[in-house]
Amino acid sequence: LWDVPDILYEIGFAASKLAEPDNKLKHMKWKEKEEHLKKIKRYGEINKMLYERCYNLDSKNYLYAYSLGYYWYKNSLNPENRKKGKEFILEACNNGLKYLDKALELYPNHIRSLYNKLQLKQFQLELGNNSHDERAQKEIFDIIKKIEEVYNDSNSESQQRNRQSYLKARYQEIKVLLNNIRLKDFYKEIFLE
Question: pTM score > 0.85 for this model?
């Protein structure tokens, strides 16, 4: 069993679902919440271990690289992990980007990998307090352009499956553009008046 990546992946996927906090959490008493969070953390550790094993057994399967990238993506966005500090989150972002890049090397048109990479790049930009870094913004726009190309070139079934990621990518594009407009207006107000 330990050497069969397909089965390990399925078990890892189940563990990833069990590692997601649910809505009941806010209605739990402190002791119950603490126990529940310990379980979630343990399932997350199992999930990571199994996905790493899958990737080590078959590093040519984009799904295993994507799954590890997604694991780190979720970790970087998890509010519980924000308590661990900016360095931990940036490390999670970097790990996520490493595996998502590997997934995209194997399957360049995987919209979800592209979208998760976009989110991590945007998050890194915001965390680094350099949200106006032109090179990083260009990279973000390049990812959005790639998502748009892949989405428009795909069949209707694939478009339906990837519609949410596509629309979220367009939202990120608008967010970056608005941020640039606000910044330019801010500089005009301060320096030109």
Answer: no
